[in-house]
Amino acid sequence: MPDIFDLRTLIAAIRQMPPAQTFLGDLLFGEGKPFNTETVEVEYRKGKRKMAPFVSPLLPGKVTNREGYTVTMFKPALVKPLRPVTVIDLQKKAFGQDPFADQSPDERAREIIAQDTLDLDEEITRREEWMRRELIFTGKVTQKGEGVDQVLDFGFTNKAVLSGTAVWSNPDSDPIAELMNRRLTIIQKSGITPDAVIMASDVASAFIKHPLIQKLLDNRNFSVGQVDPRTIPNGATYIGSLKLPALDIYSYDEWFLDDETGAEQPMVPTGTYAMVSTRGVFNMHYGAVTIMVNGEFATIRGTRVPNSWATVEPPQRFLQLNSRPLPIPTNVDSWYICKVLQ
Predict the structure, then answer these.
(1) Quick check: 41 and 35 in contact, CB under 8 A?
(2) What's one Pfam family here (predicted)?
């Protein structure tokens, strides 16, 4: 029987785990790309579209410059939650376990390690979803914690704050025109067509109740789309679809605890929506992780890198899950953030 704390055994077990589902991650981000080094290459552009020039067949081809893009090297901060397994843990009944079940310490240890691995992976997944949220709504990736304080700023500028009669709580506002204008701006600046809008709960409510939206839905001679709220996994709700502009509407009802204040904050800032494309304009990169293996340093590539070690006094075994996640956009002009409620 293999050693459950052996590095190869832990890595194999983690690779067999189904990925945790997250709304922003599943909807917008492609599969993670692990790097062989702790530092990852971040490459992105602010999109411009050039046409090939006309040239006479009697003249040589015309040299065209490559579109400008930014390349930088960034070392993502480590995320490394850990759990101890003690003698007391091996003697206690697990949550939901039959109190009369007859288990050996080895079987008990395997159960604990399996559950702890899932729990640690979920903690990292929540951090990744928060980082995606930060990228989308601020245009930055902020990594701040014990011994680390760094910000990767992508120079995101597609932001707007409505005021006066333009706010969606005003019956004279025009949410459809607002969405069409933002969609056109994204297409013009990046060449990428957005196909989804993620709204805060209050924005989704104001949108559905808006007199213009209600009027369009009631007008049988005009097909604006459909409003058909239904819940999908991960705290999100599919509100419906618009035919003009062609957009799927979602609300995302999820919260996180702010690292600095400890206060609960919504994933989608209050009064705000994000217009995005689901066609792979965001990616997750992962730096390699260096750990001690058999007394020597080893740099391991992966989205999750496990590690385990024991102490004699007090007698306990630690399980740690390491990751260096970094969400990045491929084109900084490919989405838009707008605050439509005051």
Answers:
(1) yes
(2) Phage_cap_E
- Please name the amino acid found at residue 288: A
Specify the CATH number for the domain of residue 82: 3.90.1690.10
Does 18 map to a domain? yes
- 273: Cα separation from own chain's centroid: 16
Residues 108-117: pLDDT tens digits? 777 888 888 8
Q: Please give the Cα distance from 162 to 150 (Å, whole number).
A: 31
Q: Answer for the pair 331, 277: CB distance below 8 angstroms, yes or no.
A: no
The dihedrals phi and psi of 182, each to the nearest 5 degrees, come to: -65, -40
Q: Is position 251 within any domain?
A: yes
Q: What are the two backbone dihedrals, phi and then psi, of residue 179, each rounded to the nearest 5 degrees?
A: -65, -40
Quick check: is 90 in a domain? Answer: yes
Strand partners, 279: none
Amino acid letter, residue 336: Y
**Structure token pair of residue 73:** 């090297």
Residue pair 135/327 in contact (Cβ under 8 Å)? The answer is yes
Q: In this predicted model, what pLDDT tens digit does every residue of 145-186 receive, in sequence order?
A: 888 999 999 999 999 999 999 999 999 999 999 999 999 999
Facing residues of 148 across strands? Answer: 145
Pairing assessment for the beta strands 282-286 and 33-34 based on DSSP bridges: parallel
Any domain includes 63: no
Q: Are 282 and 196 in contact (CB under 8 A)?
A: no
Give the residue numbers spanning the domain of 228. 1-47+71-342
In the chain, the number of structural domains is 1
Entry pTM = 0.85
